[in-house]
Amino acid sequence: MSEIHVLRDVLIIFTISILIVFAFQKLRVPAIAGFLVAGTLVGPHGLNLISDRHQVETLAEIGVVLLLFTIGLETSLSRLRASSRLLWIGGPLQIFGTLLVVVIGGLMLNRPLEELIFWGCLLALSSTAIVLKALGERGELDTLHGQASMAILIFQDLAVVPMILMTPVLAHGSSGAMGTIVETLVKSIVVVGLIILAARVLVPHILNHVVGTRSRELFLLTIIVLGLGTAWLTSLAGLSLALGAFIAGLVISESEYSHQALAEVIPFRDSFNSLFFVSVGMLMDPRVIFEFPLLVVTLLAVVVVGKFGTGAIAVFLSGASVRSAIMAGVGLAQVGEFAFILAQEGQHVGLLDNQNYNVFLSVSVLSMIITPFLIQRAHKVARRTEALDRLNHWLPRWTSSVEPGHHLKVKDHVIIVGYGLNGRNLARVLRDMEIPFLVLDMNSAVVKASQESSASMMFGDATNPRVLNQARISLARVLVVATSDPFGARKIVQQARQLNPRLYIVVRTRYLKELPDLHDLGANDVIPEEFETSIEIFALVLQSYKTPQAMIQHKVEQVRKEGYLKFRRGELPELAHHLRAGTLADVDVETCRIESDSPVLGRSIGQLDIHGKTGASVIAWTRHGLTRSNPSKDVVLESGDVLVLLGAREQIRKAIGLFVDTGTM
Q1: Which residue has the higher pLDDT, 214 or 604?
Q2: How buried is 419 (Cβ within 10 angstroms: 0-12 exposed, 13-18 middle, 19+ buried)?
């Protein structure tokens, strides 16, 4: 009856989690912290309500695998290559920086070097699950500090394998084990390479055949098998399951089915992922905190501050701004879940005794619990610290790629911050219209590639006033902030408004809730993606019902005005047809094409009596590209004819109804 026990345990976990997370949400406390607290409460050191902890941990590991799989789906190999500097420079700097701090501090306390190296490896690891979950909930995975955090976390996951292999060597000093370590690492690299190669060759063909069946169930099962199967194969090579799942997600992200795969997997990920956070909370023994309160609190402070420092410095030296480095450092300032595996290995070989192991677990879980709170307040810390912008004066190479002595000769121009899809489209239109513009972006690869074909781009952090001055913001006419970083956007708007009070500032944001703050800081127009997407959706729906375009435009304007005014936006420019003014304010002009299935084919305008039946008038008629005004009543309508109608909205709607084959709608 073990299955019933597992069901009972999962039911207890979810029930307690619902109650605690609900209470935490009312208090505006992150849900992750609620799951961790729930785990401590139901675990063996709390109320001991769970009978089979091993089964719960197995389910929790599936949650981590699914989390990394979806992160891989949301990323892509191209985006990962764009973050290669952060991955291969920031990752090693963060790990070796943590090792160096631990070793120096431990040697001052006369601790053995081998033990200090092991502790350095433990503390160098951060929680991939918690950091990415917290950043994802805040919509910050696409920001520079989100990309930096992801790159360093991926490098940490890669580093877990050699750390585990080195643990017996540190404990016993066996020199013969080095050959085994090198052999295992080479085997791991080869296996991962073969998996990526096979997946890139086979996965597109497999998905094409599966999608051809039009079976949603088959598609979902295939996606799960690809994710879990790749994770299992990488685990055979000595790598973590989570890293294998991330690789699988990366491979599928290159296919055209990645968005559907992500939508199918997310519900499973969220359910199993909550079990992971609960299982982490179950590890902590509150009695250790009460027994060694000063030690635990001191170690917690040292770990958080130390990891913040090494993470922030690593990200900063990788080319990020001070603000992004601070926010990434705050996110990395905890001990990760893979450190628990490494700690168990160290306990087996004698590098950790039971007391140190329990203290380590308590400090680690506490660092995880406070991480969501720290990430919530990271932007405030970064904003205050940016007042000390002196760092950028002695490291000017990080703020701009403009060559020394190169002076930009541009004025009355548009400054575009961010060269993503929005930035590229705007730049293309401005180039076609011969309007001068300059793009600022923090992706060095994109900047370098663009500079080869155009001199209108420079590398720089637009939150830094020095970079904005180099872009000659005082002479610019328009600033467009097209980045995905909400906190960076606020800083950019604030700096730009101070540097040029006459500047017209347009900001792209994801959520309506950002509008008030951005307007208060000086933005003239803010375009929230979720709101504009909703408008586009209902406009398309109305078009499918052959609603007159003028009526659709009227509804668009109405919803825009009502929606934006709720968030203190001023009047939008009038977008209505030019005839909707003065004495013709209540009159619309609309065109209607006669389709091949229209019931009026072969009938004359006079026979239809459009004005008598609807009140609308036909003021023009187009056939074969030739337009005639005031068409004769004897004109017989043919397929492809276009009639221009004049009248009130309701009159035009009725007139168009005459031309539509209602049997086909």
Answers
A1: 604
A2: buried
